[in-house]
Write a structure and sequence with these properties.
The chain has helices at residues 2-9, 13-20, 28-39, 47-54, 58-69, 73-91, 97-103, 109-120, 124-133. With 135 residues, it is mainly α.
């Protein structure tokens, strides 16, 4: 129970990524790309669409993410989506894993579950059960 409570109060990965942005001033292209990704977590978006929204080329965007975030743009988008899934589970608005995965543009619910477990220490279904039991 203590472990589960710890997981429930653990800061999400997207917030952690946002906190790193304060360490170094990031280019406005990167900030635009991150804002676009946060606004489109429920939509299918490509790297080219993110780059267009940021106002730079896809390759330049990849270089900026590597330099300022030490990861790729699509990885950051995945983290935002996992964070949104976690918030949906904690708010009680998520009822099943498959619908949640599809709603957040994960094409494979099994892969979504695996990524969620790696990020939050519990599978999404276990987190749903735990949250329902303790609310």
């Amino acid at each position: 129970l203590v472990f589960a409570k710890l997981i429930m109060t653990k800061s999400d990965n997207a917030n952690t990524l946002n906190n790193f942005s304060g360490l170094r001033i990031s280019p406005r292209f990167l900030q635009r790309a991150e804002a676009f990704m946060r606004e489109n977590i429920h939509n299918a978006v490509s790297l080219d669409e993110i780059a267009d929204a940021a106002g730079c080329s896809a390759r330049a965007l990849q270089r900026m993410f590597k330099e300022y975030r030490d990861t790729s743009p699509m990885h950051v988008l995945c983290e935002y989506r996992l964070s949104a899934a976690h918030e949906a589970i904690l708010s009680g608005s998520a009822r099943n894993v498959t619908d949640l995965a599809i709603h957040l543009q994960f094409s494979n619910p099994g892969r979504f579950s695996s990524l969620y477990r790696n990020a939050y220490g519990m599978s999404p279904s276990a987190m749903m059960r735990f949250h329902e039991k303790n609310t």
